[in-house]
Amino acid sequence: MSSFATCRCDIFCTVIDNFGDIGVCWRLARQIVREHGMSVRLWVDNLQAFARICPSVDDRCAIQNVDGVDICCWQGDFSAVIPGNIVIEAFGCQLPDHYVENMARLDSPPAWINLEYLSAEAWVSGCHALPSPHPRLPLTKYFFFPGFDEATGGLLREKRLTEARRLFLASEDLQTSFWHRIGAMPPPADALKISLFAYENEALPSVLSALADSPIPTCCLAPLSRTQAGIESFLGQSIAVGDSIRRGGLEIRILPFVTQDDYDRLLWACDLNFVRGEDSFVRAQWAARPMIWHIYPQSEEAHRVKLDAFLERYLADMPGNSARIVQNLTGAWNDFQECTPALMTAVLQQLPEFRLQAENWEKNLSKQEDLCASLVRFCKSKL
Ligand code: TRH
């Protein structure tokens, strides 16, 4: 049995596309260092993508330390690398062969985890923590599933997250310096603040048009990303970071892609958040604000089942009429169907109700053990 205080953890991450894989791994790596005092090496195959969410990362540097995490460029054959006692392969990425062989040569085998993607589907709890023995070597890998109930590995949530959000929302100064840091003036006090992060979405022009026509003033804060074409198509002009463009009651502000921590603050500051994928989707839930999720599209429509499974849980305690409105906008958003002005009016009118629901959801969800604590506890039991 290894001494847990001297545990070393290796996290392996391949960036498939977008920022979710590295986003989750970076969050987890920092939390293991900060809250569990272990040393962590994060092996990443794409430092450019990493540098987008963490500008302190130098994409030309093969080995560097940021926020206490050793960040290593995933290259070479790994024959000289001594594995950590905890090995996390994120999202089924294939570990280097030599590294796996070195794992088998350690005096005691490491706790080997395959961290899976998040899904609210019921089968997840039955597969969480299942072992998968290596066909040849004396090693066992365990499947670790994030999820929404106690029978899963939970969700990533830093210890001081709720407190940090409360402090931010209670402090004008913190909010003002946040807006300045990301290069924006604070949005008008009377406008509803809406953050926008999504994949390419043909429904986007209709959403913006419905907001522009609404009597409720809105300010849409959009970090420049894959929504660019949809915003440009609505505006009929090209956009760049720093732009602030008005149409009717809607002001659209184009933000830079901000750091992960500032992205959290953006979610906290807004009244409605459009989010996507996995990590921003989870962070919007911790923001305790209404959200509309653009799920990562998968082949053969596999994402539909996941979307429905989540909505079933998320909307379970919401009055039927309000739940239907959220479901309708989420459905239109994910099916690329037009959002009618009537649907948008209904959404905006119901926002106070949605907010209560989002607050309750966050309160209940945060009673669960967080994923990092649950993962560390699980690994400890295997060492
Ligand atoms: O980038 P994504 O679409 O990632 C996706 C999903 O994770 C999906 O499950 C996976 O299969 C696919 O990648 C390969 O969306 P996600 O998960 O929300 O990740 C975005 C990250 O970017 C998240 O950590 C928040 C961060 N972010 C910033 O740091 N700054 C920003 O300005 C914005 C908008 C996001």
TrEMBL record:
Lineage: Bacteria, Pseudomonadati, Pseudomonadota, Betaproteobacteria, Rhodocyclales
Organism: Propionivibrio dicarboxylicus
Keyword field: Glycosyltransferase, Transferase
Superkingdom field: Bacteria
Catalysed reactions listed for this entry: dTDP-beta-L-rhamnose + L-arginyl-[protein] = N(omega)-(alpha-L-rhamnosyl)-L-arginyl-[protein] + dTDP + H(+)
GO molecular function (one): protein-arginine rhamnosyltransferase activity
Function summary: Protein-arginine rhamnosyltransferase that catalyzes the transfer of a single rhamnose to elongation factor P (EF-P) on 'Lys-32', a modification required for EF-P-dependent rescue of polyproline stalled ribosomes.
Name of the protein in its database record: Protein-arginine rhamnosyltransferase
InterPro entries for this protein: EarP
Family: Belongs to the glycosyltransferase 104 family.
Coiled coil location: none
Keyword Transferase applies: yes
